[in-house]
3-methyl-2-oxobutanoate hydroxymethyltransferase
Amino acid sequence: MKKHNVTSLLKMKQAHEKIVALTAYDASFAQLFDQQNVEVILIGDSLGMVLKGQEDTLSVSVKDIAYHTRCVRAGAKKAFVIADMPFMSYPDANSAYKNAATLIRSGASMVKLEGGEWLLNTVAGLVERSVPVCGHLGLTPQSVHVLGGFKVQGREQNQAEKLINEALALEAAGIQLLVLECVPSSLAKLISEKLTIPVIGIGAGPHTDGQILVMHDMLGVSANYMPKFSKNYLNATGSISGSVKQYISEVKSQTFPGPEHSFD
Ligand code: KIV
Ligand code: NA
């Protein structure tokens, strides 16, 4: 089995094969996920919540992500590895270049940034400088205090139109993957159809090109609360490797996420 890359992931979208993604923060879980053929592993700034026990992702630093990226890289042989750019590590293009370089040198093959319109120049600049970029739209947790909480986004017509336009603009600027978080299933479906690149959903319904969950949520062991869009696979299967197998099979067969994990 060959290593995944942006081309293999794009081919999966074209072949209508769902992409399975999980977060990981260390070599042992990265290796377990990798061996079970999880295609994408994200070192998420969710580590602020699930590793550090904070209420949000805002305390996470580039140093934190770089450390966990080195750990994950050591365990992941085939999976495509993406690292989150944490809060305020890309306020302008030059800071983004410098911090992205740190994460790429730590072993990430792509970096993920939260935001739309305001980020277009930075995204284009990163791609021109050979850094692959994953976008992140919808509920962007780094903006939790601007949004007034962790809430579903894009329910109103004008918000939905803005999201569609931002997704298209990010694709034009050069992103090669997009994460859509907590948006109505119908909107996520529309965006997935409009974009050529793969769209990975979380709380975005079953119609995106792939799914991602925070590993602690998927195992039901998160320190804080369990989001509605996640599923406790450890409860369902009784083992960690069984959980990963079941998650993969439910994403591939489009039985996860069900209506109870999705938003209208
Ligand atoms: O930080 C994270 O884990 C993420 C995923 C939930 C997409 O950004
Ligand atoms: Na994140």
Q: What stands out?
A: The radius of gyration is 17 Å. The CA atoms of residues 217 and 226 lie 6 Å apart.
